[in-house]
Known about the structure:
Number of domains: 3
Largest sheet: 11 strands, mixed
Subunit structure: Homotrimer.
Family: Belongs to the transferase hexapeptide repeat family. LpxD subfamily.
Strand order of the largest sheet: 6-9-12-15-20-23-26-29-32-34-35
Number of strands: 35
Helix content: 10-25%
CATH topology of the largest domain: UDP N-Acetylglucosamine Acyltransferase, domain 1
Pfam families: Hexapep, LpxD
Radius of gyration: 22 Å
Distance between the termini: 70 Å
EC number: 2.3.1.191
Number of helices: 4
CATH architecture of the largest domain: 3 Solenoid
Protein name: UDP-3-O-acylglucosamine N-acyltransferase
Strand content: 25-35%
Amino acid sequence: MDLKKIAEILECDFSGENFEVTKMNTLKDATKSELSFVANSKYIKDIQNSNAGAIIVDGHTKDFVPKGCAALVVEHPYWEMARISKYFAPPVEDATLPEPKIGKGTVISPKAEIANGAVIGENCTIMAHVYIGANTVIGDNTIIYPGVVIYRDCIVGSECIIHANSTIGSDGFGFATNKMGEHKKIYQNGNAVIEDDVEIGSSTTIDRAVFGTTLIKRGVRIDNLVQIGHNCVIGEYSVIVAQSGIAGSTTLGRNVVLGGQSATAGHLSIAPFTTMAARSGVTKSIEKSGLTFAGFPLMEHRVWLKLQGKIARLIK
Length: 316
């Protein structure tokens, strides 16, 4: 879309030259042809370092927009970002894309549905009632069990196993809320990428990114009934046990273990080789590697065990 058209939709003026905006992106990752936004003054430093061609800002942050970047000044940038995100959402299905490409030796159930533009590698097994969306890529030797849904533009590597009824690339839980308590959907225009040698249990959901990619790295093992939010990164060979939930934009380092029913808040970073015992609640980033934690509020596992012992003695 032309920047001028975007300004008309947002009912705002803009400074700078008109140009074709190719997509929306974060301040950190945006390029000269992309649109970004600032919803909080704490990101002023990111504004000054951004390469975005245009940024949606409010009156408090407009003066920090760098020279050569167009400022779209609105009253509520987060709400307006949500409103304009709809215009950059690709079609759910696209009949103009080429027929799917199926690799040698791959077996696909006649009850499965493969959308246009999809590419499936060699020696895969795609079972009944699987749906693989437009422009999705599946690597070699991957097994996808019945009822799995993989939304458009996602990537699944080679030697993967995805068990029944799991969903890859569904929309993350993103919306803006105005003063009246009304909600506006933020269209999730990124994707989800599953690297090689990943196993995903049944009825697990991995959300696509708002912008960019939700990334599950090589060798990860995910149990049944796990929720991974948008823009998360799960480090190599991590293990996530049943009924765990990871909120959006949290990064797990290599070989992190989350015990059953564990959960993390969003926008956290968990150091490599960290272990969370069952039902751990993680609300802050963990910077030191190799530790084991438990409980809520979270504490080191050995301290949690001592605390439970003292509580048990108190009630005798």
